[in-house]
Specification:
Layout: H1 13-24, H2 28-41, H3 46-58, H4 62-75, H5 80-92, H6 96-109, H7 114-126, H8 130-143, H9 148-160, H10 164-175, E1 179-181, E2 186-188
């Protein structure tokens, strides 16, 4: 077998299980080593790349996670989760316009991606585009009716827009058992 033929093979199931186990249990040194060796042997295997990007994020190596996530998109540009994950990384770097583009691409590829709508809402809120943020929070809630974080985001935007009563109600929905006494301005649990 020629070395170039290896790219079309898959790592064994045990290798992938170990990779996932190391990552999920926080043994990041071993997860990184196994990811790198898997990538060296199978350079187009997305799962190993995703674990490596996750390890870099978990260990605070944001720039390395960014490069790895860009590689994942290069390998599979039609993967909505890869664009979403890139948005999360870019958010940590404060590159909001690129964050927006990443979430929009994720939504383009997966129109029912509630989490991408929610994070896009957060980004637009941070950019001061409250009407667009509200639209995206509402879309996230439409797609996932019990999306508490999106309810809170929507409530926050509504309050910022001067819609206090409706905003506080959304915050109450997002917080579950906690609610706000609008007339007295107190939190009741």
């Amino acid at each position: 077998m020629k070395k170039s033929d290896i790219n079309f093979l898959e790592p064994c199931e045990q290798q992938l299980n170990n990779l996932l186990k190391y990552y999920q249990t926080g043994i990041y040194v071993d997860a990184e080593k196994l990811s790198l060796s898997t990538i060296q042997e199978f350079p187009k295997h997305l799962f190993a790349w995703k674990i490596l990007a996750g390890v870099f994020m978990k260990t605070g190596r944001i720039s390395e996670s960014l490069i790895t996530s860009q590689k994942i998109i290069q390998l599979n540009p039609q993967n909505p989760e890869a664009h979403y994950n890139l948005g999360v990384i870019l958010q940590k770097l404060g590159r909001l316009y690129e964050v927006e583009a990443s979430y929009r691409k994720a939504i383009e590829l997966k129109p029912d991606y509630a989490e991408a709508y929610y994070n896009l809402g957060n980004t637009l809120k941070e950019l001061g585009r409250l009407n667009e943020a509200e639209t995206n929070y509402r879309k996230a809630i439409d797609l996932k009716s019990s999306f508490r974080e999106a309810e809170c985001g929507l409530g926050s935007v509504m309050i910022s827009k001067g819609q206090h009563k409706e905003g506080l109600e959304k915050l109450r929905l997002g917080q579950g058992a906690m609610f706000f006494d609008i007339d007295n301005g107190v939190v009741i649990q």
